[in-house]
Design a protein that fits this description.
With 340 residues, the protein is mainly α. Helix 1 runs antiparallel to helix 4 (58-87) and helix 5 packs across helix 6. It contains 13 helices and six strands. The protein folds into two domains: 2-170, no CATH class; 209-337, CBS-domain, CATH 3.10.580. The protein has a three-stranded mixed beta sheet with strand order 1-2-3. The chain has a three-stranded mixed beta sheet with strand order 4-5-6. Helix 10 (227-237) links the parallel strand 1 and strand 2 (241-245). It has helices spanning 2-31, 34-42, 46-56, 58-87, 95-122, 124-141, 143-170, 172-185, 191-203, 227-237, 268-273, 294-304, 329-337, and strands at 220-222, 241-245, 262-267, 287-289, 308-312, 323-328. 27% of the residues are buried. It is rod-shaped, with a radius of gyration of 35 Å.
Length: 340
Amino acid sequence: MTVALLTAAGLFGLGVYLSAQFSGAETAFYRVSTLRLSFHAAAGKRRAARMLRFAEDPARFVATLLVGNNVANYLTTAAVGVAVAAVTTPGGGGAPEVIATWLISPVVFVCGELLPKRLCYLAPSHFLGRQSSFLLAIYVLAAPVAIPLAGLARLLERDGESGSRRVGGVLGRGRLIEVLDEGHRAGLLTDVQDRLTENVLHAAPGRARDRAAPPERAVSLPLDCTREELLTKAAALGVREVLLTAVDLGDGDDGGDEAAPFVGYVRAVDVAAGDGPPREWLRSLPRIPEGATRLEALAELRREGDAVGLLVSRPDAGGRARVVGILHERGLLRELFGRV
């Protein structure tokens, strides 16, 4: 009798332990941030890498939990049967076993379900990381049953998955915002990074032409201007770049929207650091299509390594494009990131 009771106690303790492990792992798995797992796995943390394998194939995880929960339930049921058989006489009916099951149900529920789920809900990354080796071992041991179950789950999800992929292509921007919001909640993005991302998502699609300065307002000088003339004008107007033209446009009051003969631009700091005429420091002006967005225009300027660019219209019948605006890298940066 003593051996039977000890065996029942051991089976019961093992069953409750397994139930707690699998119940907590289920809550932690659906609670943990996949983004955080990715960062930790990239940083070389083995536990995160193991759980990321489950996160990338949820069917394997669900199959492992299903097998594990069934084993835990079988052990607790067997423990009750062994204990009742040890303390009752044979042929006494099933009432003692039913009563014993009722009595231990609150213990199993609290210790094997409620408490582990609550703890794993509060700290999913911590507990799931500690359980990663255990869950992987269970999956390997239960492979003959878990693998077919995982395959069946993938088969049932195939139709719904193809539809979700089509929707994901349309709602990509919204899904990106959800991922960033998840990263902010998980502590991977600071408030500044969050505001920066939000600002870029809202301002980037805007037209670059809305931020372009009219050609007639460009700060320009003729190509053959002197060093002193350029530095004086740059200091008086507080600008860092001055456009150079093939002809003297004066202060730009009589330019209009016609094609301005801008041949390039120079940075005042380069001219101030050198001794030669400004034309020796001439930089090219990237030509950006009129329909470009602000982010596209900024990317083009950064790709060329220039601070100023020309916004041009589509070529006419003669193949000539009209300059419709002047874009400054600092202005685009201020528009995209200025509120951060």
